[in-house]
Design brief:
With about 475 residues, this protein is an alpha/beta fold. The chain folds into three domains: about 80 residues, no CATH class; about 120 residues, Aspartate Aminotransferase, domain 1 (Alpha-Beta Complex), CATH 3.90.1150; about 250 residues, Type I PLP-dependent aspartate aminotransferase-like (Major domain) (Aspartate Aminotransferase, domain 2, 3-Layer(aba) Sandwich), CATH 3.40.640.10.
Length: about 475
């Protein structure tokens, strides 16, 4: 290290000196001394590293260093997982947490989280109870299943079912249903990882009932049908209905397992141009059905296993169940969501479950929301604004190909490039995530709440005023 570099390094203010600064004392009062010290060391360490690597020849002035520390403190004070405003129009955006929950669910979760609960305590008998009892009865009443159990997601549900019912024999499945879901999670690997032997039948585009029948033998332990909820095969295609498969399974004393995935509990075909099978339909024509809670059901991340009691009883005895069990907060939120389905009629459900509301919201409502947001943003004369028509997506591996007509507010900010605008909105306390269309930053009103308009206005004002 030469003398000139040493001289520059000696000019870096000490941690103790900065701690005596009035601005830092104020930060310590707000955030605590430990966080402020960590932030000071981080900023000073960065300055030192830049000097040693020859990236800069001198240090920033003292006020700039203090401002850098302030930014660092504010950044480190924020939790990593936090609320965002979803302006993408993707209703079940996996990266943004999928289904949003109703207010009454949040209230119940707070009550359960803030104290003790009867998670595994039977209030009638005063003895140990089952955590699944809080939701199993509701699932049965809503779906028609004899019994049910829940685990932490649908992938876990499928693995648990196969591990219990098909771990030492052939699992027969159509070649066209060997799907992959997020994170390279593939059905063939699930089957083999649980000890089953994968037996493919039919072709990618066509499978007939006789294809299944020809592969059934004394080694067969289950028939598996996977609903292609995250893609569609169109054209010259043919498949076997669950009714036909269920009859074939009965004739051979085998369970028919259906991985439904999306978990729809209400027939939405009268509201949207799409026919998706409901859980109730699948329960009626199978022995075991698995589905997600945080997709079209509109609840927390869980995997539901519903069906015949004799199979559910076996699943409950599987040691894997304990490793995959859900916690009290998940169960409390799921129970409230299920109570909504059990106690409310269809019209009330579409208004109370956020996912269903977003899926069925009318174009007229969305247009009015876009006009309302535009009016609020027009107060900022440094914004170039317009309303455009486009399409929303469902996302989350649900209702593939469905395009929902929507309205977006398109934004350009004076003196701020579209990339810079997108980046800055992504890095604020409550990040605003949108999409870019023809050099405009766009916000889809289908996934934006009215109470978020003022946040959007304030953040755009901050960006355009700097």
């Amino acid at each position: 290290m030469n003398n000139s570099v040493q001289l520059v390094l000696r000019q870096i203010p000490s941690v103790n000196k900065i701690l005596q600064d009035s601005v830092m004392k104020s930060m310590i009062a707000d955030y605590g001394e430990k966080l402020v010290k960590i932030s000071i060391n981080s900023v000073l360490g960065g300055i030192k590293s830049n000097i040693l690597n020859g990236l800069v020849d001198n240090i920033p002035n003292y006020d700039d260093i203090v401002n850098q520390i302030k930014v660092e403190v504010n950044s480190k004070a924020l939790p990593s997982l936090r609320k965002v405003i979803n302006g993408t129009g993707i209703i079940l955006h996996t990266n943004l947490g999928r289904a949003s929950l109703p207010e009454n669910v949040l209230n119940q979760m707070q009550r359960i989280a803030s104290g003790y609960s009867n998670l595994e305590f039977d209030l009638e008998t005063g003895k140990r109870g089952s955590r699944y009892a809080h939701v199993a009865g509701l699932i049965s009443k809503i779906t028609g299943a004899e019994d049910a159990v829940v685990v932490n997601n649908n992938a876990a549900a499928v693995m648990l079912v196969l591990s219990t019912l098909a771990s030492k024999g052939d699992v027969v499945i159509s070649r066209g249903e060997l799907v992959e879901i997020g994170g390279s999670f593939r059905v063939p690997e699930i089957i083999t990882s649980t000890g089953g032997n994968l037996v493919e039948v039919g072709t990618t585009n066509k499978t007939h009932l006789n294809d299944y029948a020809e592969k059934i033998n004394e080694e067969t332990t289950a028939l598996l049908k996977v609903h292609t909820s995250n893609y569609k095969v169109i054209g010259f295609t043919e498949g076997v209905s669950t009714q036909e498969l269920h009859q074939l399974a009965k004739e051979n004393n085998l369970p028919l397992i259906v991985d439904l995935g999306s978990g729809l509990l209400v027939d939405l075909s009268k509201y949207i141009n799409y026919k998706e099978p409901t859980v109730q339909e699948m329960v009626k024509n199978s022995d075991i059905v698995t589905f997600s809670g945080d997709k079209l059901l509109g609840g927390p991340q869980i995997g539901v296993i519903a069906g015949k009691k004799k199979y559910i009883d076996k699943i409950k005895k599987n040691q894997l169940l304990r490793a995959l069990r859900v916690d009290k907060l998940t169960l409390s939120s799921l129970e409230i969501i299920l109570r909504e389905y059990y106690l409310k009629d269809e019209k009330e459900l579409l208004a109370s479950i956020p996912v269903l509301k977003k899926l069925t919201e009318s174009s007229d409502n969305l247009e009015q929301k876009a006009k309302d947001l535009l009016t609020i943003l027009k107060a900022n004369d440094k914004l170039n604004l317009k309303i455009i028509e486009d399409y929303s997506e469902v996302g989350g591996g649900s209702l593939p190909g469905l395009e929902l007509p929507t309205y977006l507010v398109a934004i350009k900010a004076e003196g701020v490039s579209i990339n810079k605008l997108e980046s800055r909105l992504r890095k604020i306390d409550i990040p605003i995530i949108g999409r870019t269309i023809k050099d405009y930053f766009c916000l889809d009103l289908r996934t934006i709440e009215e109470n978020e308009y003022e946040i959007i206005k304030d953040e755009l004002c901050r960006i355009t005023s700097n």
